[in-house]
Amino acid sequence: MVDCDRRTATMMTLFGTLLASGTAPLEASYTSAEPNGYMDKVPAAWKGNEQIGIVLYDHVTALDVIGPHYFLGRLAGATIHFVADSIRPIPSENGLVLTPTATFETCPKNLDVLLIGGGTAGTLAAMRDPAMLAFLRDRGARAKWVTSVCTGSLVLGRAGLLNGYRATSHWIGRPLLKEFGAVEVDERVVFDRNRATGAGVSAGLDLALALIQRLRPTEFAQMVQLFAEYAPAPSLDSGTPDHAPPAVLARAQDMLTGFVAGVREVAATANDRRPG
Amino acid sequence: MVDCDRRTATMMTLFGTLLASGTAPLEASYTSAEPNGYMDKVPAAWKGNEQIGIVLYDHVTALDVIGPHYFLGRLAGATIHFVADSIRPIPSENGLVLTPTATFETCPKNLDVLLIGGGTAGTLAAMRDPAMLAFLRDRGARAKWVTSVCTGSLVLGRAGLLNGYRATSHWIGRPLLKEFGAVEVDERVVFDRNRATGAGVSAGLDLALALIQRLRPTEFAQMVQLFAEYAPAPSLDSGTPDHAPPAVLARAQDMLTGFVAGVREVAATANDRRPG
């Protein structure tokens, strides 16, 4: 989920200044860095060579993709690509900028994992972006795993990649999955054949852990979970619609009415002109 | 936790090219974005004006700071600053670059929340960086909340900010807290007066949720938890040393021996020349 305000504008101005100067000591900061790090000690049998594409777009919810990135980024031997329409910096939310490392054109043609996160207005824009949909259809047709977090599944759906698949989404998005031919499942992580979808935002951690169990031996996944100290203990119990107080749920739903209407509008358009 | 490899170098080269070109359509991407977003519907009574400083440094573990950022970034009316020694892009891990919005000099003098994340070799470097320690001591002396995630508490400790405080850290770091005068507590989130420390990596989500409960009405925190769909359900149960299989724990500990030795070395130096 996304919100965007004047702080983002301020940050973008600062960043624009930096871009214009072109003098940031990037290579220096890299070469001064630590050696290859603790994952070098991973046994050879636990190493792989996956090509992983994490899709970025303006106002994607950062945690949707950075949660999974923690786990996927520890797949020793794998290569992570942050993919967007260009390598321009991508504004996510509240002043946080994410940096693509590949474009729709330069991203490897055959991916082991394709992952897209969600958001609100930014996600609606992604669902309307022909270049995004073309990229997802192309790589999704061959990727070993086609995955999403939060309302990212609605973008996969719009691209036709969840037609006939069981899937989940952020709780606000789950009832909308059927608009794109998917079968709504009210679970936190849903695997159906090579599609893996996660519920809202924080579900990306659960999705990624479950995915690395499928890519590597269980002991490897356990080790990464231990590194992440992933034994969550939220201090409140309002993480799902059936646990949140009714007034809190009603307010959250009210805030998202525009998003829901937007998805229905996109779906109506999509139905008019599939496969888009 | 951090690891750093050739992919980071590739990414930094790409990014350097972009910086040199100075032509990214940043303002265009901002102005074409969604309107102010769903948090605009937050009632006035739930709005604040906090100044929040999230500290970045080379090879910080991204999820340590992006997890809390999800929650803190939804405090309507608050301003988030990503603070580093300069506004050069900061390499975190596995190709992910984070972008500061303020420097140690330009960051507001009085912060409501100061937050620092952890890592491994990058964190050791931060613990040895006089400018970092000076920044933390200055802002930490006046911040309403001085907070950390993962091994970030060791940096706070090195800066003298946890002396006599109960605190936690990543499980590998908890026994090291006493080197800096802190009292180790084996809990996921520890509050002691205005210090709030979290355990490893993923504990940043729990820390931030608990913190926003203290900054806003409970209903607000519940609403943000619902937006995040933060009802975690990991598919494995190896997130803590006492739950991970012994062989997995032994391997993880082995990978981190260099980090532990480095912290002890920093602590010995710190003891020689406090307050540094």
Automatic annotation (TrEMBL), chains A, B:
Domain named DJ-1/PfpI: residues: 52-213
Protein name: DJ-1/PfpI family protein
Organism listed in the record: Sphingomonas aurantiaca
Domain of life of the organism encoding this protein: Bacteria
Name of a matching Pfam family: DJ-1_PfpI
Xref: InterPro entries: Class_I_gatase-like (IPR029062), DJ-1/PfpI (IPR002818), INH-QAR (IPR052158)
Lineage: Bacteria, Pseudomonadati, Pseudomonadota, Alphaproteobacteria, Sphingomonadales
One Gene Ontology biological process: regulation of DNA-templated transcription
SUPFAM superfamilies, alphabetized: Class I glutamine amidotransferase-like
UniProt xrefs under CDD domains: GATase1_PfpI_2
